[in-house]
């Protein structure tokens, strides 16, 4: 039985997807996609499945995701799912379709938070200077 493992990252969220032949079930941390979290996050995760269409209907996908907030987790999940589907089906046309729709479906987002600097509360904010 063919099983593919893939991963996706966004900010501090890391998702790992396992994909195999099955009945078309998608689970995130053991929760079915139909009842998972906020609707906006659910819609993000279903994007790669919608683009793949009937090709991905008979695939069982289990995703485990940790770290970050709910939207970071959703975007990490969609990257992991898209990579897993392309790897499982070995379909270059589908990969091109994903990249044309949104490059972050196949490539993890490398952006990270800017580190805090001295004399300020954050990365950019500084204490005000007085010249009088």
Features:
132 residues, Ribosomal Protein S5, domain 2, alpha+beta, 5 strands
SSE topology sketch:
Elements: E1 4-10, E2 13-21, E3 26-28, E4 31-32, H1 39-52, E5 59-66, H2 70-89, H3 92-101
Parallel strand pairs: 3-5
Antiparallel strand pairs: 1-2, 2-5, 3-4
Helix pairs in contact: 1-2
What does this entry look like structurally?
Helix 1 runs parallel beside helix 2. The protein is built from three helices and five strands, in the order ββββαβαα. It has one domain: 2-Layer Sandwich (Ribosomal Protein S5, domain 2). It is α+β, with helices and mostly antiparallel strands and 132 residues long. It is 33% helix and 22% strand. The model has no long low-confidence stretch (mean pLDDT 93). Strands 1-2-5-3-4 form a five-stranded mixed β-sheet.
Short description:
The chain is an alpha+beta fold. Helices cover 33% and strands 22% of the residues. It has a single domain, classed as Ribosomal Protein S5, domain 2, CATH 3.30.230.
């Amino acid at each position: 039985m063919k099983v593919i493992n893939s991963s996706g990252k966004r900010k501090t969220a890391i998702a790992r997807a396992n994909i195999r032949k099955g009945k078309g079930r998608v689970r995130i941390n053991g929760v079915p996609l139909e009842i998972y979290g906020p609707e906006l996050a659910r819609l993000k995760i279903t994007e790669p499945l919608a683009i793949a269409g009937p090709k991905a209907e008979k695939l069982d996908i289990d995703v485990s995701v940790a770290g970050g907030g709910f939207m970071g987790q959703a975007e990490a999940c969609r990257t992991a799912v898209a990579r897993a589907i392309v790897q499982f089906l070995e379909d270059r046309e589908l990969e091109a379709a994903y990249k044309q729709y949104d490059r972050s479906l196949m490539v993890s987002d490398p952006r990270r938070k800017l580190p805090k600097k001295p004399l300020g509360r954050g990365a950019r904010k500084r204490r005000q200077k007085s010249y009088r």
